[in-house]
Specification:
Mean pLDDT: 85
Distance between the termini: 19 Å
Number of helices: 4
Radius of gyration: 21 Å
Helix content: under 10%
CATH architecture of the largest domain: Distorted Sandwich
Number of strands: 27
Number of domains: 2
Shape: globular
CATH topology of the largest domain: Deoxyuridine 5'-Triphosphate Nucleotidohydrolase, Chain A
Strand content: 25-35%
CATH class of the largest domain: Mainly Beta
CATH superfamily of the largest domain: Deoxyuridine triphosphatase (dUTPase)
């Protein structure tokens, strides 16, 4: 392995006071709560932390949750249910305790439970839902939020008061983590507003939601959400259409930005043309959508991670799109984190692979996704996580072709 020089892991970001609307306090009642309400929750003790919560943690419609100082490797994943507290379950299943100060390596395939720094004391009418951060998903790190008495992963019941725990399973790469890192985010929801195709169609009449390229809008495919198709042709000067994770790669320190050589961790797959490509069972891929999608500031969006009507694969780990994603820049491609399940999957260009569900905000956010608040992926194409050097698009070096129907599937590595 070559020696590497990496960027400062914790650059200080300037606080953005971007205001989108003249009257940002106008209530839309039910829906996902915006950044200013999250800030008020912090001030009013609804979101609790013994360590100061920074402005950097507050996203347009969510808050980044930070790892505490200990991780507990356990024999199996679990939901606490109503019978036992989470710490008792950890004791019963404990393999070892890991100190995250100053840092620790989490091997791939092992299940860890990490108490988070933040805890909650939610109002009775407010629930919450968690999801991995974009970078977490692109590294195939499987995370799920757990709450005391919870019967579902990722969901926090209305009025919950208690600690938060994160299940962490790195499925492909060993990872280096430390106290204070954020692997997931939490959004807060008042009520249960419907997200129907009728509402989405009316939104599409007022705001463009999908683009073919930098200039041309397209009619969105609306059926149980906004349909998302896969790009197997490439875009611009690049014919790279996918990355397949290599097995037995070295550890990745999540604090390092623009640090690692792509070829040490990923196999590059160029366009198969009209032949299509085969996803091998158990392999992890990064692909991109054909469409450039836009999420207006009045809404947030969520990718359905698994839909058996579309195929036997998981399409997206970090499924939340903040208000403003792709907005004002004629859309942004959705990066797809894809893992086939039990059987090989054949994909063709422009094949339907996912659905975006648009949820309305309870009020317009004071800041939206984009460079002004340090967002990493606003004008992305097919983009790996920020830990990797993004320099392969123009390189003509020989790389693998995607497996075609008349060619054998590459064996899992």
């Amino acid at each position: 392995m070559r020696s590497r020089r990496c960027e400062n892991p914790y650059p200080q970001m300037a606080h953005s006071n971007t205001t989108l609307f003249e009257d940002s306090a106008e209530a839309l009642e039910t829906g996902i709560l915006p950044s200013q309400t999250i800030r008020a929750f912090i001030a009013n003790g609804k979101i609790i932390s013994p360590v100061a919560i920074t402005e950097k943690q507050i996203q347009p419609a969510s808050i980044d949750l930070r790892l505490g100082g200990k991780a507990y490797e356990v024999r199996a994943s679990f939901l606490p249910g109503r019978q036992l507290p989470i710490r008792k379950k950890i004791e019963d299943l404990l393999v070892r305790e890991v100190d995250l100060e100053p840092s620790a390596v989490l091997p791939r395939g092992s299940v860890f439970i990490v108490p988070l720094i933040e805890s909650l004391d939610l109002p009775s009418g407010v629930s919450a839902k968690a999801n991995p951060k974009s970078t977490t998903g692109r590294l195939d790190i499987f995370t799920r939020l757990i709450t005391e008495g919870g019967r579902e992963f990722e969901n926090v019941r209305a009025g919950y008061s208690g600690d938060l725990y994160l299940e962490v399973v790195s499925r492909t790469f060993p990872i280096v983590v430390r106290k204070g890192m954020a692997l997931n985010q939490l959004r807060f929801i008042r009520g249960n507003p419907p997200a129907t195709d009728g509402r989405l169609s009316r939104l599409a009449e007022r705001q463009p939601l999908a683009y073919e390229d930098d200039e041309n809008q397209i009619d969105p495919l609306i059926h149980r959400g906004l349909g998302v198709t896969v790009d197997l042709q490439g875009s611009g000067a690049s014919n790279i259409v996918a990355y397949r994770a290599k097995h037995n790669a070295p550890p990745i320190d999540l604090a390092n930005v623009n640090c690692y050589e792509v070829e040490d961790f990923w196999e590059v797959i160029r366009s198969p043309g009209r032949k299509g490509m085969i996803l091998g069972p158990g392999d992890f891929y990064i692909l991109a959508s054909s469409e450039r999608v836009s999420v207006p500031p009045t809404h947030a969006a969520e990718m359905v991670p698994f839909d058996p009507a579309i195929g036997e694969f998981r399409i997206h780990y970090a499924g939340f799109f903040d208000p403003g994603f792709g907005y004002g820049v004629n859309g942004t491609k959705a990066v797809l984190e894809v893992r086939a399940h039990e059987v090989p999957i054949f994909l063709e260009d422009n094949q339907l692979v996912g659905r975006l569900i648009y949820h309305k905000m309870a009020a317009p956010p004071e800041k939206i996704y984009g460079p002004a608040i340090g967002s990493s992926y606003q004008q992305q194409g097919l983009t790996l996580s920020k830990q990797f050097k993004q320099n392969l698009a123009a390189e003509p070096a020989p790389v693998a072709n995607a497996a075609a129907p008349n060619a054998p599937t590459l064996a899992p590595r």
